[in-house]
Amino acid sequence: MNFDVPTFSLQIIALRNIKAGEQLFHCYCQANRSVKERRRQLATYGFVCQCKACVNATPESDTLREEMDDRFRKIIEGEKEMFANPQFNIRSLDPLLKFEKDIVKEGLDFKPEFVDLFSIIMQAYRKFNKTAKAREYFTKMNQYRG
Question: What pTM does this model have?
């Protein structure tokens, strides 16, 4: 998001395709914080956020938000080691698939690292000759890249 002073306009670039009629949201605070911290950050704006993430917050969702960036970093940095591990098998994808599901459920699928997660999952499916699943994740990657 950029503010263009000469035109006095806010320029927002989507990180994924947006469907016609799809509602767009703007986060006034850091999305990777607990609901308590987000509410503290929002207090200066004079309202209580009623988005799904704030209304449906749980200790688990707060933990996901607080650990998300570190988990992305570890997954991306550990990619080569993961594929080189002789014990790497199709069940090794379970934690990555759960992480993907949790991120989507919480509406946190806006981070560029989310596409990296798709790429790693796609490569794993290719390694295990799961062509249809690899294609599915290739499509997801392209949808999020725009």
Answer: 0.77
